[in-house]
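BUG: 3D viewer hangs when loading the predicted structure for this chain

Environment: internal workstation, default settings.
Expected: structure renders.
Actual: progress bar stalls at 90%.

Input used:
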Amino acid sequence: MKELTRLIKEDIKPALGVTEPGAIAFAVASAVSHVRGELRKVRVALNSGMYKNAYTCGIPNSTNFGNLYAAALGALAADAKKGLEALADITPEDDAKAAEMVKAGLVEAVLQQIGSEITIDATVETEQDCCTVHIRDSHTHIVSIEKNGEQIYVDREYLEETKAGVTCDPLKRETREEKNTDEIPVVHRYSLKDILSYVREASMDEISFIRDAFSMNMELLKEGLGSERTTITKCLLRENGGSIISKDALKTAQLLCNGAIEARVLGLGRPAMSITGSGAHGIIATMPLLAQYKAEEDGSGELCLLRAAALSYLITMYIKEYSGRLSAFCGCGIAAGTGMACGLAFMKGGDDSVIDRVIRNMASGLTGMICDGGNHGCAMKGIVAVDAAFRAVDMALSGVCIESIHGINGRTPEDTMRNMGMIASPGMVGTEETIVEIMENKFR
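Structure tokens produced before the viewer hung:
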């Protein structure tokens, strides 16, 4: 298996609801699995991206939303063995008990630090025990567990890497060229030309697993179409002539993509296939490509679709490695939107120079879009990203783009993607703090 294939395969995962509530529930449920007796207190300390993304986010199988309810449900009924789908089996009774727990003041969620790197410290206290689970760098990566003041688990490899400075911190300003090669994320060891060569040569057998992303995200869309809670989805369906699939690729893309995103952020009960730890990223990276595939008269072939999705995933990952997994800019629109735009250009026969132009067009148009958490507004941001992607591709295919001398565009596509990521981190760290302050002030 090629290294880039492995990279994609290891990164895409099913995620039920927005990833951050699922991660909070997973962390708390993991702590609960080590304690005995009646619950007395649950506390989660989060980095700003985690705190913000779950702040007003819908929770699967729940009528409630946000950090406190995700933590309460994690303590009462989540299944840690299911990872990011820990909330899959929540019942109405569980939901009611969680509401009582929050009302009684037994759950606390605090902002621990401003930063794009994922941190969750989940502490559960009972009559008999106290356990804290520490998660770092990815949503389900437990690095240590303490119970009653003693360490009962530690990821020693992670701690050694951290001491050696191997883990990459996007908040630091040094360039990747200044770091040791071993510290460079795998995807950054490849140029755009390398990635395109891989994509063009990838066989059906090697990348057929990507099919699961399309089928999973389509089932999530159908869940949204059948729900009384969705509004944007119904509007997009009307705009597409009442059909899920039409010959209008853009309108179909808006429906397939943003109908699935709306279902996800409202907490409806089906998973999305995530990339870089985000279901919305995974949806944007794939569903408009499916719309283009379905809208073509003769079709460009399933293998072309799968190759385009692989390209979309890798470009998304390339930008996200610079921005950090959770930041103040909308990675769904900017990183996944750019990846998807590259995939669209690939499906339409664009060569390396066309895809370079697509990246520059997207960088110049979308890079300032903020992330104000996982919420209903994600679908609106997705609508903007899909429109921008189709426009960027059409212009690039006509030889039109924002030249590299302008704005944050770099001399190479790799420079441009790096610059896009740096706008988020370190560039928007102060913006992140302001966004959180605005969100908190609404509920004071």
